[in-house]
């Protein structure tokens, strides 16, 4: 799935558009490629499984509040932008079930500024386990979205 719309120039509101939005439950994707710029994959609601996929973007390119497992997937950051962020998870409360798990994934790309994620909402949950990271990842790792109360 590719978002072939022109890349946003940052001057217009609502310029980003998702290449894919998943809001149903129990969706599974095998050997799929998701390519976009900002907000590539809206992993919105439900339980989802991604295996042997390729996901490319720049800012918040995997976002939403779903509970999803990404297995053996390449996460490719296409950006020199210091605002590059891979995930923006939107879990609202600590007892919510949502979260993203990346297992045996490869994080690749251009640049050296990408953050692994930012707390879009106060109880964001993102885990990288047994993953490899190229130099594209900023050693800082995470952003609290300029809200110190999100540092939990």
Automatic annotation (TrEMBL):
Domain of life of the native organism: Eukaryota
E.C. number(s) listed in UniProt: 3.1.1.11
Protein's name according to its UniProt entry: Pectinesterase
Signal peptide region: none
One GO BP annotation of this record: pectin catabolic process
Family annotation (PROSITE patterns): PECTINESTERASE_2 (PS00503)
Residue ranges of every copy of the Pectinesterase catalytic domain listed in the record: 14-144
Catalytic residues (UniProt): 60
Pfam family, one: Pectinesterase
Recorded catalytic activity of this chain's protein: [(1->4)-alpha-D-galacturonosyl methyl ester](n) + n H2O = [(1->4)-alpha-D-galacturonosyl](n) + n methanol + n H(+)
Keywords of this entry: Aspartyl esterase, Hydrolase
Protein family according to the UniProt entry: Belongs to the pectinesterase family.
């Amino acid at each position: 799935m590719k978002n072939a719309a022109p890349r946003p120039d940052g001057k217009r509101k609502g310029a980003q558009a998702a290449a894919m939005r998943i809001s149903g439950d129990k969706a599974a994707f095998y050997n799929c490629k998701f390519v976009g710029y900002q907000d590539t994959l809206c992993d919105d609601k439900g339980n989802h499984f991604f295996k042997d996929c390729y996901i490319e973007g720049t800012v918040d390119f995997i976002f939403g509040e779903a509970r999803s497992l990404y297995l053996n997937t390449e996460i490719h950051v296409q950006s020199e932008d210091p605002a590059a962020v891979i995930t923006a998870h939107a879990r609202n409360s600590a007892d919510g079930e949502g979260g993203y798990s990346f297992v045996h994934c490869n994080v690749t790309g251009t640049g050296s500024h990408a953050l692994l994620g930012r707390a879009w909402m106060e109880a964001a949950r993102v885990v990288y386990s047994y993953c490899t990271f190229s130099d594209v990842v900023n050693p800082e790792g995470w952003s609290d979205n300029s809200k110190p109360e999100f540092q939990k």
